């Protein structure tokens, strides 16, 4: 397997370990290809076989899920690992007030950068520019698609810097065209004058919830009652609760906040579609044009993304081709980590629009 490479990952097996006799004769040639490939360490050349993963389901056991409820299973080819995701979120300095995001060539699904990824990267850029302060509020709008295989540019404009708070505007561009823009409020911190928080929803815990494969090794997702369902007739309330954790992120508070933010755009549209029979997330980019347009997030406590976080998505409105979802994130002990809202579009394709390629849909 070649994770992190610009092209499509590959998974090769020694020919001796591939039992072709288990396949019908007519399928043996089209499901497996055999080549002379370097062996371990490149010291030898041997006959290796690779399955056509468009026709054969190849599953990878993810160690993050190991435990009483068994390993987490991901379908190959995976997008990458949690470490790859951290690498993307950890934007690099590129001059005064400028940062750049590293590209990622392979996408198993649509070759479009998620808005929530841009939000996470911008949070890191704002935090790096103001050491000792953490983001407490951020709002970002996404105005143009970005290509994950090309570099992203983050330009910061400091709006104010006080003893307690700083405000920063962040613009995201690719090849000179603006893709997103946002404002970020950073705080130096202060002792409580008062304290209270809304309790978490009463739902089953992560080990009683249904595993969900979103193609990242080292990220464990468990959906309460399996509510994230592609079946358009699996109707329910406009609510999805999901437990999420990441394997061994660096001990950097900015990256833990960014990992929490990166998942905010994943399930809000699906929550809005749940009450409507015959319309589900399976139609996204097939019959429905869907996209996250804006995310607003507030952080209430330090984040540990390597521990279970419960994302509660409640789609409060679907009207005029838009949806609005109000969300909270709690830790496993019930602590209120963050609140966020997502505004998104859900609109039918115009009559006569060409069918989307299966490789490009969600």
Outline the secondary-structure elements.
Blueprint: E1 13-14, H1 25-31, E2 32-38, E3 45-51, E4 58-62, E5 72-76, E6 80-81, H2 82-89, E7 92-93, E8 98-101, H3 115-129, E9 134-142, E10 152-161, E11 165-174, E12 177-187, E13 210-211, E14 216-217, E15 219-223, E16 239-246, H4 253-262, H5 268-273, E17 288-299, E18 309-319, E19 322-331, E20 336-348
Parallel strand pairs: 6-14
Antiparallel strand pairs: 1-3, 2-3, 4-5, 7-8, 8-10, 9-12, 9-17, 10-11, 11-12, 13-15, 15-16, 16-18, 17-20, 18-19, 19-20
Query: N- to C-terminal separation?
Result: 23 Å
Fraction in helix:
10-25%
Spans of at least 5 consecutive residues whose pLDDT stays below 50 are 1-5, 355-362
CATH superfamily of the largest domain, by name, is: Acyl-CoA thioesterase, double hotdog domain
Describe this structure in words.
The structure is a single chain. The chain folds into two domains: 56 residues, no CATH class; 303 residues, Beta Barrel (Porin). A 13-stranded antiparallel sheet has the order 7-8-10-11-12-9-17-20-19-18-16-15-13. A three-stranded antiparallel sheet has the order 1-3-2. The chain has a two-stranded antiparallel sheet with strand order 4-5. α3 runs antiparallel to α4. The protein has 362 residues and is mainly beta. The protein is globular, with a radius of gyration of 22 Å. 35% of the residues are buried. The chain contains five helices and 20 strands.
Summarize the structure.
The chain has 5 helices and 20 strands. It has 2 domains: 56 residues, no CATH class; 303 residues, Acyl-CoA thioesterase, double hotdog domain (Porin). Helix 3 runs antiparallel to helix 4.
